[in-house]
Amino acid sequence: MSGEILRVDNLWKSYSETPVLRGVSFEVLRGEVKVIMGPSGSGKSTLLRCINLLVRPDKGRISLEGKEVFPKPYDSIHRIRQKIGFVFQSYNLFLHMTVLDNVRVGLIKVKKLSKEEATKRAMEALRIVGIGPELWNKYPAQLSGGQQQRVAIARAIAMEPTIMLMDEPTSALDPELVGEVLNVIRDLAKQKMTMLIVTHELDFALEVADEIMVLDGGKIVERGKPSEILNNPKHPRTRRFIERLRRRVEHGHR
Amino acid sequence: MIFINIKVIEEYGPIILSGLNKTAILTVGGFGMGFAFGSILAFTQCFGGRISSRVATAIEESLRSIPLLVLMLLIFFGLPEVGLSLTPVQSAILAIGLRSMAYQSQILRSAILAIPRGQIEAALSLGMTKAQLFTTVIAPQALRIAIPGLVNQFTIDLKDTSIAYAIGVSELFTEAVHVAQVALDYLTPLVFVGAIYFVITFAASSIMSRVYKRIAIPGLGASQ
Amino acid sequence: MGIVSAFELLAKYHSIFLLGLRNTLILTATAFSIGFALGITIAVLREFGPKPIRHLLAAYVEIIRGTPMLLQLFIVYYALPAIGIVLPPIAAAILGMGLNSGAYQSEYYRAAIRAIPRGQYEAALSLGMTTRQLIEVLAIPMAVRIAFPSMVNELVYLLKYSSIAYFLTVIELTYAGKIVGAETFQYLEVYTIIAIIYFALSMAIVRFCKFVESRIRVPGLGAPEATRGLI
Q1: ∠A210-A168-A250 over CA atoms, to 5°?
Q2: Is A156 a residue whose pLDDT tops 80?
């Protein structure tokens, strides 16, 4: 069960002349959890969106399980995306669908499973994230942020992706709701789900990450074991950034 | 009302009501055509290439700035010059349909644009194709958002079928005017058809709000 | 159809086209002004007036919005003489359009009055203003600014619907087209010219109003534009 799931080589992306990613390279191995940190505007969101091709990179190479995704996709883009689970900062549940429909729509429409099979799998996924049957017929707007994000995670894992990308999954949540979502992600990590997570939850990263990469100005300025990065950052910018995050936590801001 | 002559209604009411048939044909035909082509236009503007979306916008804007009456006269009296002779009913449906298309395209376009970007990103991230994205996410959300605007357009189309009087379509209003000329009483037939228009528009909007409440989904731009 | 023949038509019949243009502009402008005065009055009375008047005006607005404008014009022109009010065609058209526009405009101003933040009213009342002062100093000036985009829409709407005066034989643009068409049988050219004139006029109105809006705009005050209101 080892091997390389994702490889990103020298990735570049600019928005109208403004460079956002400037030669980013890294890899994620099977069962690994990698955390990306970095100040706002450092290109974290763009990086994740490049990997599932919601944003088209300018230059570089991306491959999934050894097969090229960019620049020459080995298959159609929508089929590649089925293998990459994506969890958004703002959940992005489909507003016109119930919880259950949100989780099974991908299985029915994209994976073409029968309704029964899709429903069965969706229910399993919802149980994994701790969303009970009493919520299955509710609409997203009737749920708390934490519940919505857990449903969004269920929607992604129901597709049985080979890797999950999470874009600041807890930063839109009220402080008291962060824990329930992090617990779900922790469980996924224990199940050896391969994940690439953008987050600023330091304790969480320390606990689950195999490696932390610090992105700044479109480049990875530092990477290493969580304990090294968080307790003994080498790069001055990393040091300042981590300090700022610590202060925020102590003062109860997020 | 003291000026309403019940006898006129008793005598000529059925004649006026016989115009209901044509009014219904013009309304349903015009609105239906407007919806079919308006959807295509809106779709082109939102998802089409640069040139095709520009063309769609130009069509929409020019049709929105021409009076329905001029459009109708142009079609009925003008098109025969290029060998295209349409009956009054066909001309009226085409004119109402074209005008309705321009407005419905605008209504549908703003509904599509009102869908949060994240909804589209989420659908694509699940691996949906563009067609799947459109049928499962964009269309159901946009239609819900657009319903009040579409119903409003329906009532506008209905009221404006009266303009087909200009080219001699025997719809409700035309029948009322004819009766008025015969009975030498304008107020009674006009108030009578006015009441009919009112009842239909009122019914349309109450049905709409009921449907709207039924399919309303919490959190989906349904703050009407 | 030929461009040449279109220009020839314009040149030969320019006086009737100009007459039509003049009457179209008169119809639009005066009907809009009547509609403005009526609309503001209805809006203020429906928001601040006594209950029976509110209900009465609500009924008026609903009846106008639920029936065709053409029918309203016919009632003014053909039915009012029965009670002794005889108006020339253009006056009847202006009155009918004005009564119609008043109902629609009142809805824009009412929505605008409701969009004024509560705190503004509280501040005015705390200064010791009477309801009347509050309406004059606060509600109307703010509502007009908020409703401005809808007013522009209404003006363009009236421009197009002034063509309905055709049915009362007012020689506005569309009727001018009918006259020229009947003489030349070049309906296609004539009505295309007419359509282009309407198009140009609406563009001009929109441009002009954008300019006016930039002059009367107050930072922090504004609202999304509305079209002929939802029923």
Answers
A1: 85
A2: yes
Do the beta carbons of residue C161 and residue B159 sit within 8 Å? no
Number of residues that make up chain B: 224
For chain A, where do the domains classified as CATH 3.40.50.300 start and end? 4-83+161-250
* A130 DSSP assignment: T
Token pair, residue A129, equals 């994230």
The residue written with tokens 């300019």 in the block is C211
pLDDT, one tens digit per residue, over A89-148 is 999 999 889 999 999 999 999 999 999 999 999 999 999 999 999 999 999 999 999 999
Q: In what order do the strands lie in the sheet with A219-224?
A: A84-87, A163-167, A195-198, A33-37, A211-216, A219-224
User: CA A185, CA A178: separation in Å to the nearest integer?
Assistant: 11
**Residue of chain C minimizing CA distance to B207:** C231
Calculate how close chain C gets to B88, using CA atoms only, in Å: 15
Segment (H or E) for B44: helix B20-47
Question: Does residue B115 belong to any structural domain of this protein?
Answer: yes
- In this prediction, residue B212 carries a pLDDT of 82
Q: What are phi and psi of C24, to 5 degrees?
A: -60, -45
Non-local CB neighbours of C11 within 8 Å, separated by 6+ positions: none
- Nearest CB among C67, C79, C83 relative to B197 is that of C67
Q: What is the pLDDT of residue A1?
A: 46
- B70 and C174 within 8 Å at the Cβ level: the answer is yes
Closest CA to B146 of B184, B106, B176: B106
Q: Which residues of C touch B (CB under 8 A)?
A: 1, 62-63, 65-71, 74-75, 78-79, 82-83, 156, 160-164, 166-167, 174, 177-178, 181, 186-192, 194-195, 198-199, 202-203, 228-231
Q: How many domains does chain B divide into?
A: 1
For residue C50, the SS3 value is coil
Residues 6+ apart with CB under 8 A from A131: A99, A147, A150, A151, A154
Q: Omega before A71 cis (within 30°)?
A: yes
The model's pLDDT over A226-248, given as tens digits with 9 standing for 90+, comes to 999 988 888 888 888 888 888 87
- Domain hosting B157: range is 6-215
- Adjacency order of strands within the sheet including A4-15: A18-29, A4-15, A59-64, A67-70
Best CA proximity match to A49, nearest among A91, A23, A13: A13
Q: What is the C-alpha to C-alpha distance for residues B110 and B42, in angstroms, rounded to an integer? A: 9
Residues of chain B positioned with their CB less than 8 A from the CB of A88: 118, 121-122
- Residue-wise pLDDT for C131-160, tens only, equals 888 888 888 988 988 899 899 999 999 999
Among chain C residues, the shortest Cα distance to B149 is held by: C230
| Domain-located, residue B56 | yes
Interface size between A and B, measured as CB pairs under 8 A: 83
Fold type of domain A4-83+161-250: Rossmann fold (3.40.50)
Q: Do A110 and B127 touch (CB under 8 A)?
A: yes
Domains of chain C: 3-216 (1.10.3720.10)
Give yes or no for a contact between A164 and A85, defined as CB atoms under 8 angstroms apart: yes
Residue A147 CB contacts under 8 Å (≥ 6 apart), including other chains? A131, A135
Of B221, B224, B223, the C-alpha closest to B116 is B221
CATH of the domain at B59: 1.10.3720.10
pLDDT beyond 80 at A250: no
Rg (CA), chain C: 21
Confidence band of C219 (pLDDT split at 50, 70, 90): low
